[in-house]
Structures are given as C-alpha cells and as structure tokens.
Design brief:
The protein is an alpha+beta fold. It has 1 helix and 3 strands. It has a domain of 44 residues. The protein has a 3-stranded antiparallel sheet with strand order 1-2-3, with no helix packed on it. It starts with a helix and ends with a strand.
C-alpha cells in the first residue's frame, strides 16, 4: 500500500513540475497561458476572473523578448 502511495505521489509531482523544467535555447518561441481569479469580497472590488496569454522569442540563451 505504501509503495502505491509513494508511486502515485512521485507521478503527480513529475507531471506537475515537468512544464517548469523545460529548457529553452536560443531561437525558441514559447507561449504561456494562465487563468486568474480574484475572490475579494469588498464593496469596491468585485469577483473577477480572466485569462492571460504571453509569448516570447529567445535571441540568445539568456536574452529574449516577451
């Protein structure tokens, strides 16, 4: 039972952090997307949600434009 739980935890962690471990090189194009939700309950700010999309190009391994 413990082996199954450990294997499941390792699989979930691997799937979760795989996107962040991708290496980018010079000449790569990339696109990132995210979903945001503001859940503030005051009179001045209402509940809002939105989608963010960003992309970029790397000219060099450490120099790019987003």
């Amino acid at each position: 039972m413990r082996k199954l739980t450990l294997l499941t935890a390792v699989a979930v962690a691997g799937v979760t952090f795989t996107g962040q471990a991708m290496a980018y090189q010079a000449g790569d194009l990339y696109v990132r997307g995210s979903f945001e939700k503001a859940d503030v309950t005051t009179d001045n700010i209402s509940d809002e949600s939105g989608f963010s999309l960003a992309g970029g190009y790397l000219f060099h391994d450490k120099v790019g434009m987003e």
